[in-house]
Request: fold
Amino acid sequence: MYIALLYETVENFVQRRAPFRAEHLALAERWHREGRLLLAGAFEPADGALLIFRVDDPADVEAFVRSDPYVQHGLVRSWRLRRWNVVIGGDEPAA
Reply:
């Protein structure tokens, strides 16, 4: 299943993320190499971000959130998960 993770970030996020960015990117890159994180990036302006996961269980994405330095250090004001039904693209048939 595909899961969209939406982050709402704090004011001055771009400046405040600097001490934690390398650790955050290392986490994201590991999940990407494992095939669980497909796409990730900040919105413009950087008041939030969208990460697209392919996992068997949404709890896996919750584990990612709990381990994300941006979340741990208060740079993410709120987050939510949405199951995403892919209609075109991807490798799962449409529901």
